[in-house]
Write a structure and sequence with these properties.
231 residues; alpha+beta; Jelly Rolls; Arc Repressor Mutant, subunit A; 2 domains; four-stranded antiparallel β-sheet; 8 helices; globular
């Protein structure tokens, strides 16, 4: 791990208050691994043996419903911890972590969690802030499912992904990780047919542009209006 420089972690919230020597100590205990797109870093219900820091890529958090359906709960961008089951008092993972794109992550044994939290200023508080933000995002999605029409839900889902990981490209803002229409249907509680119909209509109106696994929002303000957020 000596090849990984401390600057990898210095700007990230859980480590931003630490000295370089402390970050070096943390890195020396980490394992680095690259994962292919579509790989499961861990599955829901597995024993939580490690916790992770995403350095590059996007993690798709997937829950299984009581009827066996796969539901995309949220996406985790680079620079965030994930698989932090010990932070919520669990010894198993509450959801699956699937690589939405090729990912690079560091990981540590869960036995180190309590020591990191006690020894490193800001590690625990920033981790709980991250959990709070994810809970807020999940609650917003539940509210959308309960109160919004399908068109508004799909527009809201695209906006969340653009705001979280959008990158400027010619003619708009592209969601920075592969996303399919099936993925969007799993995020919004609707059918693949409905998502396809909406995206096709929005393409004709010049609001989005989509190719295989990639979506670019060309008129963000129009998407805001469709989501109902402007009103």
């Amino acid at each position: 791990m000596a090849r990984l420089d401390e600057s990898l972690l210095t700007g990230l919230p859980p480590f931003s208050r630490l000295e370089r020597s402390q970050i070096r100590a943390i890195l020396d205990q980490a394992t680095s691994r690259r994962y292919d797109e579509g790989t499961a870093v861990f599955r829901e219900g597995m024993p939580a043996e490690r916790f992770y820091l995403l350095l590059d890529g996007t993690i798709r958090v997937v829950r299984t419903t009581e009827t066996g359906e796969q539901v995309i709960a949220l996406h985790i961008p680079p620079g965030q911890l994930f698989g932090i089951a010990p932070a919520i008092g669990r010894d198993s993972y509450p959801a699956s972590a699937i690589c939405a794109a090729e990912c690079l992550a560091l990981s540590w044994p869960v036995r180190l969690w309590s020591g990191f939290s006690a020894a490193y200023d800001g590690f625990a508080t920033e981790s709980y802030k991250t959990l709070g933000g994810r809970l807020g995002e999940f609650q917003a999605r539940v509210t959308d499912l309960a109160t919004k029409a399908v068109e508004q839900r799909v527009a809201s889902a695209l906006l969340r992904m653009v705001n979280q990981s959008g990158r400027k490209v010619e003619g708009g803002i592209e969601i920075a990780f592969p996303i399919t229409r099936a993925n969007i249907s799993e995020m919004t509680g609707t059918t693949l047919h409905t998502v396809s119909r909406l995206l096709s209509a929005w393409e004709k109106q010049g609001i989005v542009r989509s190719t295989r696994k990639h979506i670019t929002v060309t008129e963000p303000h129009q998407l805001v209006l469709l989501s109902g957020a402007a009103g």
